[in-house]
C-alpha cells in the first residue's frame, strides 16, 4: 500500500481510511502521529516538533478540526479517533500475541489500564509498562528497548510523547510507536469517554472541556485560530 499525503498548514496528513491505515500500520515500524489542531499550532512555533511530525511513518487525522481544515482546502479525508485507532491496532497485534509495551499516565492509571486491556483483548502480550512520571527518558528508553516490543503506546501528552517516541524509534528500529494522549485514563475506567452522540458528531472535545473546564484554555483560542489560518491558507495561500 502506498501513502498519499495531503498538506494542511504546511504539515503532511495521510489519507488512508481507518481500515487501510490499520492494515498499513500493522506492516510497518516507526512513529504514528495522531495529528490535531493543537499539534499543528505547536509545530508552527517549534521547528523540532514540526520535523518529528514530518518524519513520522504514519500521520492520522485525529478529530474534527483536521477534517474541517482539510475540507476547507477541498480535500476529503475522514477523521479517525486516535484512541480507537491505537486500540484497534492493539487488537490486531494481539491476534498473534506480538509483544506490546505501555508507557505513560499515573501509576494507578497505567496499572488499571493494563489490567483492563489484559482482560478485554484476547492474546494480548504486554511485556513492559511504566508510568509517565519519570525524570530521565534514557532509563525508560533503555528498559523499553530491552523488552523488545513490536508495538508501543505512549501516553505523555503532546509534544512530550512525540519527542519521546522520536528518541525511542532510533533505538528500536523494528517497533511501531504511537502517542495516545489521555487514552490510558479512559481505558483505566477512571475517565469516561464522551457519549457516542458526541463522538459521532466529532465534538468529543466539547464534552471533555465541559467536564474538565481547565481544558478550555487549551482549546480556545487554538481551534478558532486554526480555522482562521486554514481560511487564510485557502484564500491567500500562506
Ligand atoms: N502524562 C504523563 N506524564 C507527564 C504528563 C502527562 O504520563 O509528564 C499523562 C497524563 O497523566 C495523561 C496523559 O499523559 O494520562 C495526557 O493526557 P491529556 O489528556 O493531556 O492528553 P491529550 O489526549 O489531551 O493530548
Summarize the structure in words.
- By secondary structure, this protein is an alpha/beta fold.
- The chain has one domain (5-235): Rossmann fold, CATH 3.40.50.
- The chain has 13 helices and eight strands.
- The protein has a six-stranded parallel sheet, sandwiched between helices. A two-stranded antiparallel ribbon has the order 1-2.
- Helix 7 (137-147) crosses helix 8.
- The structure holds uridine-5'-diphosphate.
- The site of uridine-5'-diphosphate (UDP) has 14 residues, from helix 9.
Task: Summarize this structure briefly.
The chain has 238 residues and is of the alpha/beta class. 51% of the residues lie in helices and 16% in strands. It has helices at 18-26, 37-45, 47-54, 64-72, 82-94, 107-120, 137-147, 160-171, 183-187, 196-201, 204-211, 216-219, 222-235; strands at 5-8, 11-14, 30-35, 58-61, 99-104, 125-130, 151-155, 176-179.
Q: Give the SSE order as H and E letters.
A: EEHEHHEHHEHEHEHEHHHHH
The fourth-level CATH homologous superfamily is AF0625-like
Terminal CA distance reads 31 Å
Q: What summary fits the major beta sheet? A: 6 strands, parallel
The count of DSSP E runs of length 2 or more, i.e. the number of strands, is 8
Level of helix content?
A: 40-55%
Q: Stretches where pLDDT falls below 50 for ≥5 residues?
A: none
Number of domains: 1
CATH topology: Rossmann fold
CATH uppermost class: Alpha Beta
Entry keywords:
238 residues; alpha/beta; six-stranded parallel sheet; 8 strands; binds uridine-5'-diphosphate
Question: Helices and strands in order, then pairings?
Answer:
Layout: E1 5-8, E2 11-14, H1 18-26, E3 30-35, H2 37-45, H3 47-54, E4 58-61, H4 64-72, H5 82-94, E5 99-104, H6 107-120, E6 125-130, H7 137-147, E7 151-155, H8 160-171, E8 176-179, H9 183-187, H10 196-201, H11 204-211, H12 216-219, H13 222-235
Parallel strand pairs: 3-4, 3-8, 5-6, 5-7, 7-8
Antiparallel strand pairs: 1-2
This protein binds uridine-5'-diphosphate.
Uridine-5'-diphosphate binds next to helix 9.
Amino acid at each position: 500500500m502506498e501513502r498519499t499525503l495531503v498538506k494542511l498548514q504546511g504539515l503532511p496528513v495521510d489519507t488512508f481510511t481507518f481500515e487501510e491505515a490499520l492494515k498499513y500500520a500493522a506492516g510497518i515500524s516507526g512513529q504514528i502521529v495522531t495529528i490535531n489542531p493543537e499539534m499543528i499550532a505547536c509545530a508552527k512555533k517549534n521547528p523540532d516538533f514540526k520535523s518529528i511530525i514530518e518524519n513520522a511513518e504514519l500521520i492520522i487525522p485525529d478529530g474534527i478540526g483536521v477534517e474541517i481544515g482539510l475540507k476547507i482546502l477541498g480535500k476529503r479525508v475522514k477523521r479517525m479517533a486516535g484512541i480507537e485507532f491505537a486500540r484497534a491496532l492493539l487488537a490486531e497485534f494481539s491476534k498473534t500475541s506480538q509483544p506490546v509495551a505501555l508507557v505513560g499516565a499515573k501509576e494507578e492509571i497505567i496499572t488499571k489500564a493494563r489490567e483492563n486491556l489484559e482482560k478485554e483483548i484476547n492474546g494480548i502480550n504486554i511485556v513492559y509498562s511504566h508510568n509517565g512520571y519519570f525524570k530521565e527518558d534514557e532509563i525508560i528508553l533503555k528498559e523499553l528497548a530491552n523488552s523488545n516490543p513490536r508495538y508501543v503506546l505512549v501516553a505523555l501528552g503532546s509534544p512530550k510523547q512525540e519527542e519521546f517516541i522520536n528518541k525511542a524509534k532510533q533505538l528500536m528500529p523494528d517497533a511501531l510507536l504511537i502517542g495516545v494522549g489521555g487514552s490510558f485514563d479512559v481505558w483505566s475506567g477512571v475517565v469516561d469517554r464522551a457519549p457516542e452522540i458526541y463522538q459521532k458528531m466529532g465534538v468529543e472535545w466539547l464534552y471533555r472541556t465541559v467536564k474538565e473546564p481547565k481544558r478550555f484554555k487549551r482549546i480556545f483560542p487554538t481551534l478558532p485560530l486554526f480555522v482562521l489560518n486554514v481560511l487564510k491558507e485557502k484564500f491567500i495561500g500562506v
